[in-house]
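Priority: medium. Attachment 1 of 2:
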């Protein structure tokens, strides 16, 4: 059985992206007047009630456990992102055994693409998985490139998408979206370009209270089963729909007084902000979504909580991990919630 301390890995991700100002730059500073657009009636404010909560183990039924094959030539260490397509689970590992992986639900490995380095078909740290019809891609946050392979595990391409970048994805229209995080200066937080070789323009600016608080989230870009692309900015409780160079507000996650205020952020800003982020009541926000469900995973006072929102009924409920069995929700497929367990495998929970 694989054992590891996932919290240490999370801290490594955080501090590797915060220290030393190594990712400061001016990418995406053109078109600075461009602000987020909101199409009337398209976004929802979702109230997340932390007082009315119940336990995961007594209320969400486990369907099965995905135990990754440890006899394969390449063994996944810690899944960073996964995407479930029917019986197939596509995954990337960023730090312990970096690579692309594909598994069946019984844990059998279909392929592994593991080539660490700076060569033409290599990478270092992968994030932002993007599973299309015929290909799988991910962003290498060390080299600022997007690596693409096919669904048989063969190399397709490697493309530079810009320096000083914390996340990137290419959508169905071949348009590029890059996350520049919370730079100290007036550069963009989210930028876009229409095609390879064109100039980036600003889509979202860095909020004033977040300037300098650079971080690499667990997953900021998502490709939904509807082929919509969404964006969850670091340290923000907003989700955007990305479309044709615009970011349209999709959800506001309302945690009431539990979310950090502007006054809190002002107090935490400075060289040691990353060391103090554990003082935030809510940390490690990550969201998963499909046609019916929106799942928000977060840590409240150090304990994992998940908010399960039924988009059709307009109702939701908060559950907490009283047995400390899980780390984060990794994907939602139909009515199945895939949870990363503390032993590095996946447990599938039924939600209804």
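Attachment 2 of 2:
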């Amino acid at each position: 059985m694989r054992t590891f301390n996932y919290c240490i890995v999370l801290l490594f991700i955080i501090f590797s992206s915060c220290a030393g100002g190594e990712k400061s730059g001016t990418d995406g500073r053109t078109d600075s007047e461009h602000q987020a657009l909101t199409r009337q009636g398209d976004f929802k404010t979702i109230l997340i009630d932390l007082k009315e909560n119940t336990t995961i183990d007594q209320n969400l039924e486990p369907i099965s456990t995905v135990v990754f094959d440890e006899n394969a030539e390449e063994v996944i260490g810690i899944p960073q992102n996964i995407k479930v397509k029917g019986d197939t689970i596509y995954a990337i590992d960023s730090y312990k055994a970096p690579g692309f992986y594909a598994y069946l639900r019984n844990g059998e490995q279909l392929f592994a693409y593991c080539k660490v380095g700076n060569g033409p078909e290599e990478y270092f740290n992968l994030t932002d998985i993007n599973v299309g019809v015929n290909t799988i891609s991910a962003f290498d946050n060390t080299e600022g490139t997007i690596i693409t392979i096919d669904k048989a595990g063969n190399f397709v391409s490697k493309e530079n998408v810009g320096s000083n970048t914390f996340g990137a994805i290419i959508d169905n229209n071949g348009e590029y979206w890059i996350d520049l995080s919370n730079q100290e200066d007036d550069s963009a937080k989210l930028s876009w370009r229409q095609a390879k070789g064109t100039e980036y323009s600003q889509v979202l600016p860095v909020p004033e209270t977040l300037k300098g608080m650079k971080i690499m989230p667990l997953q900021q870009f998502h490709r939904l089963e509807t082929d919509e692309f969404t964006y969850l900015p670091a340290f923000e409780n907003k989700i955007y729909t990305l479309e044709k160079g615009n970011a349209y507000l999709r959800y506001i996650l309302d945690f009431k007084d539990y979310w950090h205020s502007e006054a809190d952020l002002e107090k935490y800003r400075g060289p040691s902000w990353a060391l103090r982020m554990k003082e935030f009541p809510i940390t490690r926000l990550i969201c998963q979504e499909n046609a019916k469900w929106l799942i928000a995973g977060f840590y409240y006072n150090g304990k994992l909580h998940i908010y399960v929102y039924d988009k059709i009924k307009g109702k939701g409920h908060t559950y907490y991990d009283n047995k400390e069995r899980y780390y984060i929700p990794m994907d939602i497929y139909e009515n199945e919630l895939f949870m990363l367990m503390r032993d590095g495998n996946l447990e599938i929970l039924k939600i209804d």
